[in-house]
Amino acid sequence: MDCFAIRKGRCTVLNVQKCVGSKCSFCKTRTQFQQDREKALKRISTFDGVTIRHISETYYDGKLEGMI
Q1: CA atoms of 63 and 10, how far apart (whole Å)
Q2: Among 21, 38, 57, 60, who pairs with 64 as Cys (CB 3.0-4.6 Å)?
Q3: What is the 8-class DSSP label of residue 28?
């Protein structure tokens, strides 16, 4: 499986010496990653403005509101 997180042979999500492939709980295709991200953004968009702002500032460097 081609994992979305592998760049130049290294994992960009976890701090590991070697990728364990499909045994890794973070392993997913780019399509799966995009679908999961869309699902998460859709869920976040249902929250009130204060919560969205908090999530945006905490996890998205303040750039979330332009994504949803």
Answers
A1: 26
A2: 60
A3: -
Overall pTM > 0.70: yes
Q: What is the largest CA-CA distance in the chain?
A: 41
User: What is the C-alpha separation between 7 and 39, in angstroms, rounded?
Assistant: 24
Torsion of CA 53, 55, 58, 61, to 10 degrees: -70
1-37 pLDDT, tens digit per residue, is: 689 999 888 899 999 888 888 899 899 999 999 999 9
Q: 16 to each of 38, 52, 65, 67, how far by Cα in Å?
A: 27, 32, 32, 30
